[in-house]
């Protein structure tokens, strides 16, 4: 069997074991057994538990960013791109709950090197959304474009909302909402506000 | 000096050191010195580094939930309550960046017992928002109330958005937005959509 196929099997097994047991309790014996490989071969190919975990984080992170990018047609209007991007995000996180658990729970709860890798993926998603918001605002009918930091703040809020919704939905044991329902919840939540903003209509508190 | 005053000084020092150095690198020597106490006295009062950290997490969590609750007048309309609650949240997290870092970054990145305590606080905030959304929907002019799980999903999304915005804002070294600006960003983002939803107006994708 070619090395890359073997390695993929090992990573598949590792993602599953890390997600379900947690990083520290996960055993290399279980990972090797699930991958149908010997433990020395796992060490030969992936070096250490720490490097194996790192490789899982990187692979799952790249796959998630790719899923979001691939879902979006850059030539479609902003509303459509957001809808397609969110469906891509929720379809991927729903279809790969173990990969999402590794990124969202495990990698963030085991200290610096992993947490930094996760922060880097997050930044890629935030950049995609910031770009989308800034572009929509520029196309919008309002004279005053959003300040750069305002688009970043909104993008951070939207990504935070999506992460929280994916975590909550995946953790539901009864009636977990479908990926499309999740994306629709977030569009319901966020689109009206973003559309207002990018057209220069801002929310203001009622006079007391 | 009464024990509770001493303990408060130790917790103040510990929150600062944990937030700035991280849980593992933080030293009990530095905490004791900053608290103006001897190291044996810190151990006598708080037992161990782990228990000291736990006490910090609990104290900061309680203070945050209280700040949000205190900011909201339960008799005011939903829009006002959300605005007041968000201002309470962002005012507290901006005024206590070390406490927020302990909750949002440190406690989540150091394994199970702490991560579970943070999840419990988060759930309290989510419950406040779920209640607010469900109530608004019930008061709304729409015939069809939101399903319970829909209100929870939206509340999770809103809390996730607020957490992400607080983290991003506190990390900015230049022109960090004020607490009121942060709350306004989130109202701009979320209120239009929530208002639509609770009045039975739902977002739908444009026909292709």
UniProtKB/TrEMBL annotation, chains A, B:
The keyword DNA-binding applies. Residues 4-64 form the HTH tetR-type domain. SUPFAM superfamilies: Homeodomain-like. Residues 27-46 bind DNA. It holds the Pfam family TetR_N. Signal peptide: none annotated. Keywords: DNA-binding, Transcription, Transcription regulation. This is TetR/AcrR family transcriptional regulator.
């Amino acid at each position: 069997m070619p090395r890359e196929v073997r390695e993929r099997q090992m990573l598949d097994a590792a993602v599953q074991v890390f997600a379900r047991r947690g990083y520290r309790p996960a055993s290399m014996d279980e990972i090797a057994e699930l991958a149908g490989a010997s433990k020395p071969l796992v060490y030969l190919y992936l070096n250490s538990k720490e490097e194996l975990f790192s490789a899982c984080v990187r692979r799952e992170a790249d796959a998630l960013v790719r899923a979001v990018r691939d879902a979006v047609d850059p030539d479609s209007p902003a509303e459509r791109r957001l809808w397609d991007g969110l469906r891509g995000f929720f379809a991927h996180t729903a279809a790969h709950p173990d990969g999402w658990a590794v990124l969202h729970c495990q990698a963030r709860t085991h200290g610096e090197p992993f947490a930094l890798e996760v922060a880097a993926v997050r930044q890629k998603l935030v950049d995609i959304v910031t770009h989308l918001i800034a572009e929509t605002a520029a196309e919008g009918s309002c004279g005053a474009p959003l300040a750069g930091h305002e688009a970043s703040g909104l993008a951070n809020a939207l990504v935070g909302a999506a992460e929280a919704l994916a975590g909550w939905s995946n953790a539901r044991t009864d009636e977990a909402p479908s990926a499309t329902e999740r994306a629709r919840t977030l569009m319901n939540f966020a689109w009206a506000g973003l559309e207002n903003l990018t057209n220069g209509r801002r929310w203001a508190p009622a006079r007391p």
